[in-house]
Amino acid sequence: MRVGSTVLLQAQRCVQSYHWSFVRPLGDLQSVLDSLEEYQCDEVAIIRPVRDQDTFAQFEADIQVLHGLKTMTPISFGGGIRSFKHLALLNDLPIERLVFSSAFLAKDHTLLDEAKNLFGHQAIQCLLPIRTLNGSLEVFCSEKSTFVTINDIDFSFIQSYANEIILFDVASEGEHNQFDFELLSALPIENSKLIVSGGIGHESVRAASEKGLASVLIDNKVLHKEYSITSYKHAFKLS
């Protein structure tokens, strides 16, 4: 099982997020990646936390930051990839995987087919920001900037296009050992394709390993020494 981290990129700078709402600045992207590489992070998912107000100009400005990155860590990138024009900007970037969310919820097979043709099926990841509200599961649709019921999601479509699925517990983001593993039992997705994030702690890493998950992505609090990747890997080895 891999142990990685999420990094949120907002207006060309990294931010740290709590409970899907409050953010604070972290610094420039290269410095953040340098720190994560020093901690021997297995992978990094760079996510633009955009909502319906995103513009192509904002996307293009954020992409420019990625062009100059120097890192040996495998990078996933997503957030606002919604057209062929967006995909065209991703060529020659130092990234290995693409993360889509709204495209899966909208069943945009045309965009996903093009992404698969350009980058390969193994490069396609699906991000599902999920929460439980009044006993019902909901997934956030960033393009509409609202939550939709789990009953509206075509999981067969998702599994046919996504090599891996990132399950992000929005209610637990920024917390420690709070990821809700009960979410897994409610979704028709095999554990070997799942990546979990949001509220990941040392106990969460052990639980994910025992369940045979593909990876854990620890919230961007890993830049704080007490939450370093090294300590999470130690927890994984002890499981």
Describe the structure.
With 239 residues, this protein is α/β, with parallel strands linked by helices. It has helices spanning 29-38, 56-67, 84-88, 102-105, 109-119, 155-161, 182-185, 202-210, 229-238; strands at 2-10, 13-18, 22-27, 44-47, 75-78, 97-100, 124-133, 136-141, 146-149, 164-169, 194-197, 215-218. The protein has a single domain (2-238), classed as TIM Barrel, CATH 3.20.20.70. It contains nine helices and twelve strands. Strands 1-4-5-6-7-10-11-12 form an eight-stranded parallel beta barrel, surrounded by five helices. Strand 2 and strand 3 form a beta hairpin.
Euclidean distance between termini CA atoms: 11 Å
H and E order: EEEHEHEHEHHEEEHEHEHEH
Give the strand line-up of the largest sheet. 1-4-5-6-7-10-11-12
CATH superfamily: Aldolase class I
CATH T-level topology:
TIM Barrel
How many structural units, i.e. domains? 1
Fraction in helix: 25-40%
CATH class: Alpha Beta
* Structure class: alpha/beta
List the helices and strands and how they pair.
Layout (H helix, E strand, L loop, with lengths): L1 E9 L2 E6 L3 E6 L1 H10 L5 E4 L8 H12 L7 E4 L5 H5 L8 E4 L1 H4 L3 H11 L4 E10 L2 E6 L4 E4 L5 H7 L2 E6 L12 H4 L8 E4 L4 H9 L4 E4 L10 H10 L1
Parallel strand pairs: 1-4, 1-12, 4-5, 5-6, 6-7, 7-10, 10-11, 11-12
Antiparallel strand pairs: 1-2, 2-3, 7-8, 8-9
Helix pairs in contact: 8-9
